[in-house]
Amino acid sequence: MNAPVPSSEPQVMQTYGRLPIALSHGKGCWVWDTNGRRYLDGLGGIAVNTLGHAHPKLVPALQEQIARLIHTSNYYLVPLQQQLAAKLCEISGLANVFFCNSGLEANEAALKIARKFGHDRGNSSPEVMVFEGAFHGRSIATLSATANPKIHAGFGPLVPGFVRVPLNDIAAVEAALKAHPNITAIFLETIQGEGGVNPARIEFLQALRRVCDQHDLLLMLDEVQCGIGRTGKWFAHQWAGIQPDVMPLAKGLGSGVPIGAVVCGPRAAHVMQPGNHGTTFGGNPLAMRAGVETLTIMVEEGLLANAAQVGAELKAALQQGLAGEIASGGVVEVRGQGLMLGIELDRPAGALLAQAAEAGLMISVTADRVIRLVPALILSSDEAAQIAAILVPLVKAFLAQPKP
Ligand SMILES: *Cc1c(COP(=O)(O)O)cnc(C)c1O
After folding, report:
1. Which of 13, 82, 170, 181 is the most buried (most CB within 10 A)?
2. Measured from the CB, is residue 137 less than 6 Å from ligand 1?
3. Burial 254-274 (b: 16+ CB within 10 A, else e)
4. Which residues participate in N(2)-acetyl-L-ornithine binding (predicted)?
5. Tell me: the pLDDT tens digits for 68-115?
């Protein structure tokens, strides 16, 4: 039996390790707590708040939408679904979209598409290739696709039908395909988020595209975290000049309103037929309006270019500020693209979360040793400089302590 976890919120199930800071309101890349303390938001609600907080164009649009219609059900047409789907197809070059409510739901739908794609070809036990370091969500199927044993612990038996290989190793991919002829799809994050900001290399992505074409497999790129402009292109795979067959999206698409989407290319677009899949909330008018407004405002404000430029400035400031620590090995690497950056340390870095908050900065620490920055795409050059000005001395002081 597990004892209750002591908490100031005894009726909230304690599934998160939370800092004892209660947040009250935000504006742009700044958030205030209930004591009136201000924080610079380097976390963006975990890559969710694309437009920052209380965006002056998003707020009135959502207020108008809430007063008009929040939810109706999928028994009727929701014109905003077609509007958002058309925009997503335009920016991705893909063919159609299924709407849901979160990242794991988008991945769950992608996995169902992969299985049905197999069944449609007479393969009654289709398998999906997944990767070391992967994170795809916390449902039973998506945690099974996830690599982290800490996320599996206590929830077995895992869903069968996943074959795991190392990232960026095309020989391992080809060997796995030979050993597992039932594989119908290759499923990966274009840039791993929770796994520590680990990019799939451009040549690797291009090789996977060729392999999938050659073997009639679906290339499924989880862009739940790295998509929607975060890297400076609409989607991270566009840096490799390839297209996926299936692309789950979520986090940044609704600027904080829960939303998920699976964008499919022609080979995957008609796998699902009426009755095969659905969700009550998926595609509701409020979420669709949030998606449409997010993409529209991103274009109006040039946020792809901003993410690329301010992200490069932030990365350079961190690399410069931590040059000594990089040379000595305390900082293993500063990596990532656009406004999805990771600073890998040579030791567990979880303690930095509270220290950063104390210094007025919100960050996250993932994969134990990687400080992750995924701020709003409206971040200014000045705010990027402020993030570096707070974070660099913190990391220096942290690494100056004896290594545990
Ligand atoms: C966050 C995340 C998920 C899960 O999304 P939820 O909305 O938390 O279910 C899946 N894949 C990736 C790459 C993510 O970053």
Report:
1. 170
2. yes
3. bbbbbbbbbbbbebbbebbee
4. 138, 279
5. 999 999 999 999 999 999 999 999 999 999 999 999 999 999 999 999
